[in-house]
Each structure stands twice: as C-alpha cells, then as structure tokens.
Amino acid sequence: ILLRGLVVCYAAKHLATMKSTIFFVFICAAVDGSGKHNFFPQKMTWIEAQAYCREHHTDLSFVGSEREQKMLQTAAGERFLLGWIGLHKDAVKRSVWKWSGGGDSTYFNWAPNQPDDYRGIETVVNLRVDGKWNDANPSILRPFYCFTKHKQRYRATIQTKYI
Ligand SMILES: [Ca+2]
Known about the structure:
Blueprint: E1 7-18, E2 21-30, E3 35-44, H1 46-56, E4 59-60, H2 66-75, E5 83-89, E6 97-99, E7 124-127, E8 133-136, E9 142-149, E10 156-162
This protein binds calcium ion.
The site of calcium ion (CA) has 8 residues, from strand 8.
Domain C-type lectin: 37-147
Protein name: C-type lectin domain-containing protein
Organism: Labrus bergylta (ballan wrasse)
C-alpha cells in the first residue's frame, strides 16, 4: 500500500462466530509515507535533476503541506535555496499541476504574480530563496531537491465491534 498522507483502513472481516454474535476486526493503518528531503547544489535541467533523483533517491521533492515545505528549508541548511522541486504542468490539461511520480497538487505556495508562464515556456517549478514557488523554463540549469521515501511505518489500531 503506497499511499502517503492517507489513513488507510482495510477491514479484515473475520467472520468468527462467537455464540450468536459476529465478530469483526477492523485494522486501520496510518501510513507514514514521508521521507527525507535533500538539497543538491549541482546545477541541472529539470529533466536531468528528475533523472538523477529517480536513480539515486526516489524522485524530485514533492511539497504537499506546510510541514513538507519546512522540510525543504531544513534540507538546505535552515534556509531556502533556489532549486527545482517535482512540480510540473500537466502535458494535456495545462491548468493542472502534477507532482513528479504522480498526483495532482492540492497545496501551493506560489510567489506573488506566479505562475506567470513567462514567454509560454514555464512548465516546471523551482523554489526561490524566499521559499515561494515560481514556474520556470525547464532547460535552465538549477540546483534541486530530491526526496527519499522512507520504508513504510504503521501505526495500527484494532477496533472490535460486536453486532
Ligand atoms: Ca514564472
């Protein structure tokens, strides 16, 4: 189950007859799909950076929350540094922003007046030194942020219900 930030409940229905009751066991796992973000100062195009991250880590960094935004700051040494993150424009639906590795973005931290799609060629996103996001030309050479996914950890709760 590779879902991040979601509480996944899968109900394992144990049909154990206990006298005249049916015994259900529900197992809920809060999947901690988070991991570690790292900053890489070597400059690459967005595509090169993505390939590098995928080969050596998991992917370009995704930023799904304020908390993860903060993780990038920590990765760069308690400050924000200019660098690519994994956000890119959907190739077909140009108003939709997707994370490298899948999923539409629902959290945004755009700088004022961004995304502006300057010259109509800004299809990927970089973090600025103020921590805000800017859409940019993917062929510019920039440092980048990679994400390494941790192994899954579970916090399981068992609920029992007699009906
Ligand atoms: Ca821009």
